[in-house]
């Protein structure tokens, strides 16, 4: 998958290409996943999972949401971008919309890396 936007800065930058694995274990917080965008099923979004079913997450307005069964709460790494669409705007994402897990940054060669989780950074998003 080629990255076109800035929502995942600094982890992923426009022009990066990531490997998407369609075979993956159960999603965990901190992982980066690709899923069909809830507001536009013709597009895919790539975001970081910050909450799983049963967790309480924060909305853009500062409210709280209990993530329902078989759903995930996803947030962009670039929290300063005002136009970013993620779960804070469109709510929990049904796990049935998951396309795959982003596992490696494969292009450009100078940025090749395994995409690591950031579980410790996400605690601010889970209440």
Automatic annotation (TrEMBL):
Keywords: Hydrolase, Membrane, Mitochondrion, Mitochondrion inner membrane, Protease, Transmembrane, Transmembrane helix. It is found in: Mitochondrion inner membrane. PROSITE patterns: SPASE_I_1 (PS00501). GO terms for cellular component: mitochondrial inner membrane peptidase complex. The active site is at residues 7, 47. GO terms for molecular function: serine-type endopeptidase activity. Its EC number is 3.4.21.-. It is an enzyme of class 3 (hydrolase). InterPro entries: IMP2, LexA/Signal_pep-like_sf, Pept_S26A_signal_pept_1, Pept_S26A_signal_pept_1_Ser-AS, Peptidase_S26. GO terms for biological process: protein processing involved in protein targeting to mitochondrion; signal peptide processing. It is a single-pass membrane protein. Residues 2-62 form the Peptidase S26 domain. Its main location: mitochondrion. Heterodimer of 2 subunits, IMMPL1 and IMMPL2. NCBIfam families: sigpep_I_bact. Belongs to the peptidase S26 family. IMP2 subfamily. This is Mitochondrial inner membrane protease subunit. It comes from Meloidogyne incognita (Southern root-knot nematode worm). The lineage of its organism: Eukaryota, Metazoa, Ecdysozoa, Nematoda, Chromadorea.
């Amino acid at each position: 998958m080629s990255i076109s936007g800035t929502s995942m800065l600094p982890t992923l930058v426009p022009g990066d290409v990531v490997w998407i694995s369609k075979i993956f274990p159960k999603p965990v917080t901190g992982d980066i996943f690709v899923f069909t965008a809830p507001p536009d099923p013709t597009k895919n979004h790539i975001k970081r999972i910050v909450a799983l079913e049963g967790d309480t997450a924060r909305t853009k307005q500062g409210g709280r949401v209990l993530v329902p069964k078989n759903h995930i709460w996803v947030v962009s790494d670039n929290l300063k971008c005002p136009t970013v669409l993620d779960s804070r705007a469109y709510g929990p994402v049904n796990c049935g919309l998951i396309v795959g897990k982003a596992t490696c940054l494969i292009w450009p060669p100078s940025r090749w890396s395994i995409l690591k989780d950031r579980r410790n950074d996400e605690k601010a998003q889970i209440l």
